Amino acid sequence: MENLATNPNPSAPAVYIRPEALREISTHYCPGCTHGVAHRLIAEVLDEMKIREQTIGVAPVGCSVFAYNYFNCDFVEAPHGRAPAMATGIKRVLPERVVFTYQGDGDLASIGMAEIMHAAARGENITVIFINNAIFGMTGGQMAPTTLPGQKTSSSPNGRDIELAGLPLRMSEILAKVDGVSYAVRRSLHDPKNIRLAKKAIRTAFEAQVRGVGFAMVELLSSCPTNWGLSPLDSLKFVEDKMVPYYPLEDFKVCTALAKG
Q1: Sign of the torsion formed by the C-alpha atoms of 95, 98, 102 and 106
Q2: CA–CA separation, 160 and 154 (whole Å)
Q3: 155 in a domain, yes or no?
Q4: Is 7 among the domain residues?
Q5: Are 124 and 213 in contact (CB under 8 A)?
Q6: Long-range contacts of range 44-50, CB-CB < 8 Å, 24 or more positions apart?
Q7: Is 185 a member of any domain?
Q8: Fewer CB within 10 Å of terminal CB in the chain, N or C?
Q9: Could you give the C-alpha distances from 73 to 50, 84, 246, in angstroms and in order?
Q10: What is the number of domains present in the chain?
């Protein structure tokens, strides 16, 4: 019997069916936040690659803290910033499983900077999905390592002063220089075209792990209407007009094995 939550009008052809890898449950994310879009893309890839039942996700503290409720695959919770370390342990003990982390910018590029750098340097065969919304989301909207110059946050009410706080970190470019990294790219979730490109990148990152070519990361520029103090629509424009110029959407490293398909 068809689930009405999936297709509320059974007499009409379904335009879109919820991925099996996503549970039928409402999320806690703020209206206009694109975490939900990222979840959907990951779930679609897991289904299309038929790897859902062998996948283990790792989410640390942050807006993704309840991700284990939303994905219909095995999931574990890591301490703040420690998802790459936990993913390393899981992958080494269970090398046949597909292991991915789902991390925000405050988590990955601040408290978890050591973990992500050393997992990359070791070439751990894991997949990292990095959500960059230029702010600490769950903890109160403080300045993150990715906050733009002049951007106002709860801990930089006059805007980020680069003389005091330095310049934002471009994590894709940084990790692309690490020898153990096989794939490092940046995409965005601010419009349909870029969402499609993001999905292709996520699939390539998972394919890198399945093929055993090493550490792969996809950085996704994402909106945070609540902490930015903007409407959902204006938040998408902020990503396009302010974030993309500073964080260009490019392939920064694609290893030869992946480039050849």
Answers
A1: positive
A2: 11
A3: no
A4: no
A5: no
A6: 44/19, 44/199, 45/199, 45/202, 45/203, 45/206, 46/19, 46/21, 46/73, 46/206, 47/19, 47/20, 47/21, 48/203, 49/203, 49/206, 49/207, 49/210
A7: yes
A8: N
A9: 12, 18, 35
A10: 1
| Pairing mode of beta strands 55-59, 251-254 | unpaired
Convert the pLDDT of each residue in 171-187 to its tens digit: 999 999 999 999 999 99
192: which 2 tokens? 């349909």
72 falls within a domain: yes
The answer to whether 101 touches 79, Cβ cutoff 8 Å, is: no
pLDDT over 50 (residue 140)? yes
- Positive or negative, the CA dihedral 17, 18, 20, 24 is negative
Mean pLDDT to the nearest integer, 246-258: 95
- Give the whole-angstrom CA distance, residue 137 versus residue 216: 24
Return the pLDDT at 4. 45
Read off the CATH number of the domain in which 65 is found. Answer: 3.40.50.970
pLDDT 10s digits, 98-120: 999 999 999 999 999 999 999 99
What are the backbone angles phi and psi of residue 72, rounded to the nearest 5°? -95, 55
* Boundaries of domain holding 212: 35-134+164-240+249-259
Question: Is residue 85 over pLDDT 70?
Answer: yes
Which residue type, as a one-letter code, is found at position 228? W
Does the pTM surpass 0.90? The reply is: yes
Q: How far is CA 118 from the centre of its chain?
A: 19
